[in-house]
Each structure stands twice: as structure tokens, then as C-alpha cells.
Amino acid sequence: MPTESVSAPVLEVRGLQTHFFTHGGVVKAVDGVDLRVGGGEILGLVGESGSGKSITGFSVIGLIDAPGRIVGGSIRYLGEELVGAGERRLQQLRGKEIAMIFQDPMMTLNPVLRVDTQMVEAIHAHEKVGAAAALARARDTLAMVGIPSPQERLLSYPHQLSGGMRQRVAIAIALLNKPRLIIADEPTTALDVTIQAQILYEVQKLCRETGTAMIWITHDLAVVSGLADRIAVMYAGRIVESGAAADVVHRPSHPYTQGLVDSIPTRATHGSLLRQIPGMTPSLLQLPQGCAFRPRCGYASSACLTVPQAVDVPPQKTVRCWHALA
Length: 326
Ligand SMILES: Nc1ncnc2c1ncn2[C@@H]1O[C@H](COP(=O)(O)OP(=O)(O)OP(=O)(O)O)[C@@H](O)[C@H]1O
Known about the structure:
By secondary structure, this protein is an alpha/beta fold. It has helices spanning 53-60, 87-93, 115-124, 131-144, 150-153, 163-175, 193-210, 221-227, 245-250, 255-262, and strands at residues 9-22, 25-38, 42-46, 68-77, 80-81, 98-101, 181-185, 213-218, 230-235, 238-244, 310-313, 317-320.
């Protein structure tokens, strides 16, 4: 069962703002995000498409290119400030201490190289170890992510593997250098539910066993409800609700989170139409005044014309809503 982590944070993000300076105006993709994840803990970062989840992840690993820029806030990795850190330091951290897993494993894998070559290269990029030791580590890591016959799979090219196997190899590459933090951006979305469930189980076990901190980015609240210790719900560049996973899913306080929970299919809703959140996500170039969710919200009042501050909702949630439900 997921437990509340008591360890010191591996990552602490405060007031992060990442904006894109486009011809059409300033896109505030991330606008004042606070996140915290401890060793062995899994944080689910959930929200609809375009809410700023990936840009939050890319900001942490220093992969924001023009016209985007981090314009405010702090990203502390084991206490070290990464906002403003040099590219050399960020390169040292990427792939070694902080790893990223993408929705498309081919963002990680090279189609023309065998798995063993790619894995040994990934080790050698950060560490001087002999070829035999590197290969043994590669094989053991493939076994860790549930790849059968890992010795044989080392000799495969990516195109010889199924989608699920390719994603497991990409996850294994992320794990090779024993990172302290993994940012996983929708890595199981394209896979069928059985493979997805297996991978989620293995990832959760790995985090617990190795003390790795993980941010799991997804649009699917159902996926993280069983995986994450804590959940942060993102809407239009801001975290609108965060807290222990069970609290967020079973006692949502923000009307947007309520809407996401209501759209999770359950046995009870089998065969009937699921409730959808009315309306569309707003353009980040033309955000409504005050709370960005206001035009879609059944609880909206004149108070919502002012941006809500984050408030604590017992036992341990933080919610940005004038009408937060206890
Ligand atoms: N290069 C860019 N130029 C301008 N705007 C950008 C750029 N990259 C991202 N954005 C803006 O940032 C917003 C957040 O994007 P992001 O990819 O983080 O969303 P997301 O929540 O991860 O959605 P998805 O699940 O679809 O990936 C987008 O709505 C987009 O408007």
C-alpha cells in the first residue's frame, strides 16, 4: 500500500513559472507551481492536455528551449538550486541522477543500435566500468523491469521488440545509473491495460526497493490513484489540489478534481454514460479573470473573479479554490 513519505525531499519546487514568449503573446504554461517528492515516493501529476504537466517536468531537468524560459521560482534537487544552474551541471545530472521516461520509448531508444550497445553507452556516459560489468548491469536491469530472457533481449534491435517491451527497455535505461529522481511523462498511455498494470506494479516496487523518487505525469487520474503516494492536480498552469492519493481521489476538494473523479469509469458506471466536465480547457493566451476553472465550474461565484490562494484542507491537502469542499 502507498504510504506517506517522511523522508527529506529529493525534489522541492516552489513558485515555478515557465513562460513561452510567442508572437501571439506570453503563454504561462507553468505559473506558480509547488511540488515536493521524497525518496521512495511516487507523486502523480495529473491534468488535462495542455495543463502544463510536461513543461513542469522539462523545467526540472533543464530542457526548456526558446521561446520558453523559467521566469520565476525555485527547483531544489537534494537542496541544490537548479534554476540558473549551468548546462554542464544539468548535463551531469540528466540520465545519471535525474532520469526522464517519455510516452514514446523511441525518444530514448536509437532505432539502429542493439539494446546492449545502447545500455552500455548509457552507463559509460556517466561511469567508467568494464564492458563485462556494464553488460551484467544492463541484463540485471532488464530483468528488474520484468523482461523475460534478458540475455537474449540484449541482442535485439528496438524494432524486434513489442511496444510494451520497448517501453520496458526505455524504463530500464532510465534506471541503469540508479537515479535519485525519475520523471515519467505518460509512459504507459499507449500500452494496453494489462501491460500498463504490469509496468505500474514493477515501477512501484522499484521505487520502494531502491528509494527512487518519482513524478508520474498522466492525464488519467485512475492510473495514478493506485500507483502514487500523493497526487497533484494541475489546471491551466497551476496546481489546484494536492495531497495524499486516497484523499484526493476519495474526497476531492476542488470542483475540477471532482470532475476528474466523476469521469473515472467504475463497475457502477459500466454501460452508462460517464459524466464529463462541461466546457473546454481555456487557452493559456486568454485565461479567464480570476480562477481559470471558473467558466466550467458549477460552484462559481463572484469571489472566483479573484485568483484563489492555496488553502490547507484537513487532514493534509492543499487546494486553490474559494469553495473548497472539506
Ligand atoms: N514551444 C512552445 N511554444 C509555445 N507554447 C508552448 C510550447 N510548448 C508548450 N507550450 C504551451 O504550454 C502548454 C502546456 O504544455 P504541456 O506539454 O506541459 O501540457 P501537458 O499538460 O503535458 O499536456 P499533454 O498531456 O497534451 O502533453 C501548452 O498548452 C502549450 O500552449
